[in-house]
Design goal:
The chain has a single domain (about 5-160), classed as Glycogen Phosphorylase B (Rossmann fold, 3-Layer(aba) Sandwich), CATH 3.40.50. It has seven helices and five strands. The protein has helices spanning about 5-15, 35-40, 50-60, 75-85, 115-125, 130-140, 145-160; strands at about 25, 45, 65, 90, 105-110. Helix 4 (about 75-85) links the parallel strand 3 and strand 4. The chain is globular, with a radius of gyration of 17 Å.
């Protein structure tokens, strides 16, 4: 739970939203005392780290995964969320821009722009009737990704770019 994941931007976005029907759940390991987070945004549901099976259960209780990361590799939680039928609101820095088909599997937002995050959250609230279809699109998109394909893409990249052998 840090700004590396864009948490301060997400909290600011929630402050910009004036709707009692929109709530935020945050699942993760705090890097600061909980009072620090509550001083930035008092109204969120905190969920402690849990097993992958339990994370999937949590995802199935929610409508959207928001990951406005500033610095990230490929956040696998994005694919896990899609597999659970959650559309995404993510930054390109979350490493999942290929997972986004705009307004079908979710939205890309620029880093460090709480207003853009708030706009997409409000879009989901205003278009709640589209969630079942987006959920289907999300699961279809997730089904296109396999570990074997990912490994082959990495090997192909390394071969094309002739990365130096670091064993020497």
């Amino acid at each position: 739970m840090s700004q590396r994941k864009g948490l301060a931007d997400l909290m600011k976005a929630m402050e910009l939203i004036d709707s009692p029907s929109i709530s935020l759940s945050i699942l993760g390991q705090p890097s600061m005392p909980m009072s620090f987070y509550r001083s930035n945004l008092s109204s969120f549901r905190y969920l402690s780290p849990r097993s992958n099976k339990e994370v999937r259960k949590v995802m199935q209780e929610h409508d959207v995964l928001i990951l406005p990361s500033i610095v990230e590799g490929r956040a696998l939680v994005q694919q896990e969320a899609l597999a659970c039928g959650l559309p995404l609101v993510v930054t390109e820095n979350a490493g999942g821009e290929d997972l986004i088909d705009e307004a079908e599997t979710g939205f890309l937002v620029p880093i460090r722009q709480p207003q853009a995050i708030a706009e997409k959250i409000e879009w989901f609230a205003a278009n709640k009737k589209l969630l079942p279809e987006m959920s289907d699109f999300a699961q279809q998109k997730a089904s296109l990704y396999r570990w074997k394909d990912y490994a082959m893409a990495i090997i192909g990249f390394c071969l094309r770019n002739k990365l130096p052998n670091t064993d020497n």
